[in-house]
């Protein structure tokens, strides 16, 4: 791991900044906490000044890809809405719930870094 990635990894001691899972040594992502909003059509970005080690946090691939270029609060709302869309769109989910395999809770989406004092 190069020095920059090591510094990012060390921010959480190898946990995903968002979900808190243990990151694999290979395949973890450095996420721009405040999104840089890369333009897919030419590779430029809206906020190049945010591309700093201070703004990069360690994240698992799932969280990084799902967060994409969303600000944190928008992403939180999206995740919070997943139970609603599962109930609306997924017969399998509704059946799994009916048979007791899934239990819904009213928990608010909280990220690892929030529960760990950052
Ligand atoms: Zn994660």
From TrEMBL:
Q: Which GO terms describe its molecular function?
A: endonuclease activity
Q: Does the keyword Hydrolase apply?
A: yes
Give the HNH nuclease domain ranges.
3-65
Q: Which InterPro entries match?
A: HNH, HNH_nuc
Q: Which UniProt keywords apply?
A: Endonuclease, Hydrolase, Nuclease
Keyword Cell cycle tagged: no
Top-level taxon of the source organism: Bacteria
Name the UniProt record assigns to this protein: HNH endonuclease
Annotated organism of origin: Oceanobacillus locisalsi
């Amino acid at each position: 791991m190069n020095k920059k990635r090591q510094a990012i990894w060390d921010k959480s001691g190898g946990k995903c900044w968002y979900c808190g899972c243990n990151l694999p040594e290979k395949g973890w992502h450095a996420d721009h906490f405040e999104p840089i909003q890369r333009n897919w059509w030419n590779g430029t970005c809206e906020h190049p000044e945010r591309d700093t080690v201070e703004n990069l946090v360690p994240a698992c691939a799932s969280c990084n890809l799902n967060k994409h270029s969303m600000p944190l609060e928008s992403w939180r709302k999206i995740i919070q809405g997943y139970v609603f869309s599962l109930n609306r769109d997924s017969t399998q989910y509704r059946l799994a719930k009916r048979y007791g395999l899934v239990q819904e809770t009213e928990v608010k989406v909280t990220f690892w870094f929030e529960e760990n004092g950052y």
